[in-house]
Design brief:
The complex is a heterodimer of chains A (about 120) and B (about 110).
Chain A: E1 3-7, E2 10-12, E3 18-25, E4 34-39, E5 45-51, E6 58-60, E7 68-73, E8 78-83, E9 92-98, E10 110-114
Parallel strand pairs in A: 2-10
Antiparallel strand pairs in A: 1-3, 3-8, 4-5, 4-9, 5-6, 7-8, 9-10
Chain B: E1 4-7, E2 10-13, E3 19-25, E4 33-38, E5 45-49, E6 53-54, E7 62-67, E8 70-75, E9 85-90, E10 97-98, E11 102-106
Classes of the chains: A mainly beta (about 120), B mainly beta (about 110).
Chain lengths: ~120, ~110
Amino acid sequence: EVQLVESGGGLVQPGGSLRLCCAASGFTFSSAGMTWVRQAPGKGLEWVASIKQRGSDKNYVDSVKGRFTISRDDAKDSLYLQMDSLRAEDTALYYCATGSMWHGNWGQGTMVTVSS
Amino acid sequence: DIQMTQSPSTLSASVGDRVTITCRASQSISTWLAWYQQKPGTAPKLLIYKASSLESGVPSRFSGSGSGTEFTLTISSLQPDDFATYYCHQFNNYPWTFGQGTKVEIK
């Protein structure tokens, strides 16, 4: 059974940093593209970033370019999102999901709140 | 960026109804489109990928069609478990984008 477990969310002040982690199991992680999607409270889904196998290609939504970095550690079956210079508008539930195109499996999400 | 516009935003329907949700792309995306279902407090669930391919384990009452700029998700006979919000998602051009969602409510 595929499992994705996100962690690392929390309350952070504007301008601060957080590192999200997604621990994967139940599939061959190194063969999968992976994605972060976020959902602001009461709002719709927003694609944030994707990374292909072996980290060969990374893509970001414009609003996070230069502030967020997606990465992976295939030895640890883990996906990461380093978030710097956080803004109030980054407040959301962050999901990791399998696939760099459509997303067949999702974690339960980790909440990031940016507030002073 | 490619804009994805869903209609309607809210849909009231009864169990057994045939339901159709439309998603329009601001430019052609071929068949690079997926549909997801989301219930309150839970993660989205993939229903359809590449416009018309049914994800494994998804009931056959769900179907997708379309290509280019216009797509539809159809539920042939609405069941109590289907009351949820549905999102389309294009993956033809970065940045990937989602529609704003269609909430299917009980009539």
